[in-house]
Amino acid sequence: MMRTVKNSLKLLCGAGMTALWVAGAAHAQAQSSAGSNENLESSPDIVVTAQRRDERAQDVPIAITAFSPERLQQQGITQPQNLQATVPSLVVGNNGNPSREAQSFTIRGQGATFQASPGVVVYLNEVPLPAPISIPQQGGAGNFVDLENVQVLNGPQGTLFGRNTTGGAVLLVPKKPTNDFEGYVQGKFGNYDNKELEGAINIPIVDDKVLLRVAGAYQDRDGYTRDVVWNTDRDNLHWYSGRVGLTLRPTENFENYTMAYGANSRTHGTGTVNTYLNVPGLAATSLVGLPFCVEGPTIPGFSASCDVYRAASAEAAARGPRETAHGTNSFQRTKTWGVSNTSTLNLNEELTLRNIISYQRFKTTYAVDSDGTIFQFDDGDPRSYPAPGVVTLPGDGTPVVYENASPTRLPRDDIKVFTEELQLQGDLFDKQLTFTAGAFYYDQRPAGAQGAGATGFCPALFTGNPLVCGVYDIRYAITNTSKALYAQSTLDLGLVSPALQNLKVTGGIRYTWDRVRGSAALYQVLAPGAFFCFSDNSIATEATGCQFEANLKTKEPTWNIGVDYRFSPELLVYGKISRGYKAGGINANAVFTSTRTFPPEFVTSYEAGFKSDVRLAGMPLRLNGTYYYLTYKGIQRATGDFNPDTFASGARVLSADARIQGVEAEASLRPIPGVEIGGTFSYTDAKYKKYEFVPSSPTQDCTGNVISAPATVNLACIPFQYVSPYIYSFHVSAEQPLGGDLGTLAMFVNYSHTSAQHTAGTSIPGNQPGERLEPFGTLNLSLDWRNVAGSRMDVGFYATNLTNKLYRVSNSNTYNSQLFTATLYGEPRMYGVRLRYSFGR
Fold this sequence. Notes:
Elements: H1 2-31, E1 47-48, E2 55-56, E3 64-67, H2 69-74, E4 90-93, E5 104-107, E6 120-124, E7 127-128, E8 147-154, E9 168-174, E10 182-190, E11 194-206, E12 210-221, E13 225-227, E14 232-234, E15 237-251, E16 254-267, E17 273-277, H3 279-283, E18 286-287, E19 290-291, H4 306-319, E20 323-324, E21 331-346, E22 351-369, E23 378-380, E24 413-428, E25 433-446, E26 451-456, E27 472-492, E28 503-527, E29 530-533, E30 538-540, E31 547-568, E32 571-582, E33 585-586, E34 597-598, E35 601-616, E36 619-643, E37 648-669, E38 675-690, E39 692-693, E40 699-700, E41 706-707, E42 713-714, E43 726-737, E44 744-754, E45 757-758, E46 772-773, E47 776-786, E48 793-800, E49 808-811, E50 820-825, E51 830-840
Parallel strand pairs: 6-9, 13-20
Antiparallel strand pairs: 1-2, 3-8, 4-5, 6-7, 8-9, 10-11, 10-51, 11-12, 12-15, 13-14, 15-16, 16-21, 17-50, 18-19, 21-22, 22-23, 22-24, 23-26, 24-25, 25-27, 26-27, 27-28, 28-29, 28-31, 29-30, 31-32, 32-35, 33-34, 35-36, 36-37, 37-38, 38-43, 39-42, 40-41, 43-44, 44-47, 45-46, 47-48, 48-51, 49-50
């Protein structure tokens, strides 16, 4: 009751502050001599590069959401997860991965799949960030520091961008050096002992010829999930990053921009929380003749009582969502760095030649307790366990002695990425004919050995026993190479006839050659010179004897055709059809030779929309809307696999077809000077059209029957994975000058809501506990006093998830396969103060 009262008071206070702010601004407006809404300014424009050239976002005939630096700060956007529910049709999540750093983008139902290329590619300075194999993550910490803007493009990309994508692209545009000496220093201090430092300095070394910008950031914050076994906090943050930009302009027609970045992150790992143990399934399961549990008392040397698992579930429920009890000591360490160089040569007033070359490295090592218990259902890279006697079996008191920690000390991912792009841009006939044509090369390959040790599927009584529950190892080395030629052109038909002025036709085409090749091995060391191979349950004399190699080559054309017409300076309408393609990949966990590779995805998108800047009762109103319809074929869906001939367990990637349609809208209204009211909305309707496969184990399908091989399972009726049908947000922004040199007060309040989301890829609803993530909404607040008394100092207060809403962001979906379910919860309320000092210009 008290919590409800407190939350209600917070909301009332927030509403009261908003009302006072708007009233103050309205009073100021009423006293102004203008007295007319005709003097109200429209929403500020953001210059974007969605079409590889600088344009107003309102002039680009595609669905795009752009964030200015001010809006990024006001909304507390410092990592991918913060974009959730702020962009139409965008879902950001872990996609079932037990690492908190696995923040994957899904747009219009298209995203990442285990072991596959991303469906939404993240670019930094026009270069795709590294995409590791073991975790759906792109880049590392600090990507959102000192940015000019962030752009989210919805729909297939490829005829203008480096990598082919089906879902869209996220562009992180860094601030480039300018000809002004200026910079800033910022500090943020908040709850969970949060400490953040950030700064940048811009130096024109030689006026308009040699320009330098250096930026850096640091954050250290305690975690919000307590591990009672290890007496430490999970889900903490500890990272630092830096970026250097250097612009050289030796002549008026040539510019060379080099950007180098680096980041290092070290955390206590992810706080997975156990939510279910499948006790009936455990009672019916055995390992080498040893039952996981028996009803009744524990039988020493044979099996634990099933009450041990029930007690563990009761203890987890009693601890609640912000405490856990891990067996292995989780951690994650990620290092990433890169250098990109962009050369721009103006051949003449109409033609520009650009070359973009880059080299990047990404390395991550992490240990995860996927089940969130002291048992060993699924411990990834368990390098350390509690000392003997620290842990006992729940409800039983039997001491647990862990003697099966993994000796493997390899990174999960250690990759290097090289890209090269040569591009020719043209603006002909007074910009009535524009084009971009180019060639792109992408090469991502291992920079060293990659792999991990693991323990799993271990009966409770034998937890930590290396004779029954030994460590198994996985090694993989996968290289992705992509070559492409692309071109896109836009013609204003006014060039043909003055009557067709402002009617534009766009056409683009791309041809891509992809190759994925590599090797993988999953094995357990039984004795010196004896390696048990999980891929076929054979015995090899060395680890390489368990290795298989695979190679996949594909080549595909993609294209887009569009038309747009500007009826007036205030209204643009457009329509387009585009075809997208995402390469296939290698399945490192295959137990059949036929599943070692998986084929590409294809999408055909039909889209129509408008962008408008009009006046409603004299008030500037910006309203943008889009409708789209997709045919989506060859959808990559990862699931477990089992070979009955060899008794080997692994994984495979299934294929499905679907149709997806939806609407997206963005609006902002400026009723009085300094005040903006706005929001976003999206509705996504996704349905499978075909989803059939031969099951590796008995599976219930849409008929309600349990199907076994060689019969075919039909799952076309299940909800689409990683789609939230309704996503919307509202915001109020207000600024009030204080007069004289006192500065300006600024406030930003936004509420974002995400509807329920299904996360299971191969289960009938109700068969996988927790797979449906409940709907949730978060309220954020930012208050700033800018340029305090003319001092160039800004003082602010920030709060995210102001009402401390408890919500889940991921579910393991392993209740039937690995007999447990664990979940991840979103961030609790975060709040604090920030101080920012700006100098120079």
